[in-house]
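Weekend entry, working from home. Most of the wet-lab plans are on hold until the incubator is repaired, so I used the time to fold the two sequences that have been sitting in the queue since the last round of cloning. Logging both here for the record. First:
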Amino acid sequence: MDINRYIDHTLLKSTATIADIEQLCNEAETHNFFSVCVHSCHVKLAKERLYTNRTVKVCCVIGFPLGAMSTEAKIAELQQAKLDGATEFDMVINIGWLKSGREDLVEEEIRQLKFAASNSLLKVIIETCYLSGEEIIKASQLAVAAGADFVKTSTGFGTGGATLEAIDLMRKAVNGKAKLKASGGIRDLKTAKAYIDAGVSRIGTSNGIAIVTGTSSQNTY
């Protein structure tokens, strides 16, 4: 198992500096992670830093971390990030719409973001810590119906991160029609392997180095 290729090496703190993003890219190259995952303001920098690298992708979060901005704002953020060089996008759903029973709005927003992403990968963050089991299933099904490529557990900025229980619900809900990404609180190799064994294809974490080296980390994402 090349566990490094499961990892989206992530830095989403509001305090992240230019030097921090450059270091993130350096670490991703050193350990051959699948991608770096950054805010849209850092996409151009990350792409320039990784310009000669053919294996490390640039992933950008959209509508992060609350998901509560307008659909138009999310589309504009994605379109600019795509122009700047991102090839994968992790969008946060509008949780309030889901909890209001407006499943039509949730699905349509995801559909519009996938249309804007076109051939690029769209991962849909459903923020499982705020959802009941039924809502996790429904959100996962809506993501699939809208054409998403992945369903993702968490932003890492909510009240909780990934759980194996949520992944099990998500896996059954997508029924092989989308892949799964776990994020939030995955800090060591043992935990990462448990999620991969549960069917996860990608792990979002700021603890990638600790995972691949078998050491420990205190990073929360």
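Second, folded right after the first finished:
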Amino acid sequence: MSTTVTPAAASTAPPATAPAAPTLEPGVVGPGRWIEHWDPQDEGFWASRGRAIARRNLVFSILAEHIGFSVWMLWSIVVVAMSGTFDATGALVATGANGWALTAGQALTVLAVASGVGAVLRIPYTFAVPIFGGRNWTVVSALLLLVPTLGLFWVVQHPGLPFWVLLLVAGTAGFGGGNFASSMANISFFYPEKEKGWALGLNAAGGNIGVAVAQKAVPLVIGLGGVAAGLANAGLLYVPLAITSAVLAYKFMDNLRDAKADPGPTARATRHLHTWLMALLYIGTFGSFIGYSAAFPTLLKVVFERPDIALGYGFLGALVGSVSRPLGGRLSDRLGGSVVTVGAFLVMAVAGVVAVLGVQAKSLPLFFASFMVLFVATGVGNGSTYRMIPAIFTRLGARDGDGGGDSTLEFKRRAAGAVGIISAVGAFGGFVIPFVYKFAKEEYGSIVPALQVYIGVFVLLAVLTWAVYLRRGATMAKV
């Protein structure tokens, strides 16, 4: 008797399918504070949930960036206190705080190095957001600020150190400058196109105003416990603040999955000519803001021999330049970024002419007033140029993309990457400007030649902006 073996029923049944992972709704925060789906262009989602989440992230982004900018510009005041007093022959008359006796050229070199390192670091900081996530990198970048703050605390107490050691420590302040690029790239993902100008303007202004706060707070700290103790404590002032901003970012900020991607879109943003044209314009606006902010207190001391004005009122330039930045974003939302940018450059040129007259007439009030107008124009121009970037890439996406969701996201990511690249290149203005002042002062005995160069640059940038982004018939007209 034979036995027939019947195949197991399981062998003929369709293979079991693993249950699909649950899909989170837009705006839901998952493990590690990652938001998997984010669509601020969906007006229903934006009104019900998106705006509140975006605002929360914006608030703590502003705080972290504010501390970063403050640390970046700590040296703009510290070098004034460390500078010596010299007679007409260059002989030392009196040392500065803690026995230091920096010359005007050395002070401007310190400022240039700190600004230059910050500009260089903006490039890797931009790539850090898509690699690590906006919230995660905000925590790391805030903790990195402990290096320059503790370094400043140590180095100013040792006037016998070689100048290159001072430059090395001052260069670490660039960690604070790098924060801007990652913060702006991150926040650009959170907001819809129609509100990007205002949001990016607020984010940038909150950071920029850190320059003014540092320039106002540091002289007060220097006066506590004697000049020597106060100069060292200028670094310690921001240690607890950096730690606090890191903790708050860890607890309250979010990472966006849309922003976490292959850094390829950022690399592909470099292929667009407009990325580099906007970087050039940003040298004229932000480069001028950060360069003038760093150098302004030193110029007040060197040109007019008024260290009291430099320490007491030098912060006002950075203050007015910071608070005017959101105005540039708001005006650009209504009028178009290119229109506002052209106007800003023309005002900067006129203010530069008046500054020359102030130096030639040895009129501190005229010089000071002209720089206040110049700072306002740089702030407005900063806001307007940043508003132009996403608008340009939206137009590029409409022209070169296929209209699908993946294509739209690709160009959004390129825009975010371009923001970081442009901010990095633009920040090099802060490196160049102090050196141009240094050269003019040492070669011609006056900063007037430097101011004349800047006037010419502002006029050329106004013409370039008009020709590419405003002229009737231009492919990117009125972005």
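Plan for Monday: verify the second prediction. The longest helix spans residues 405-444.
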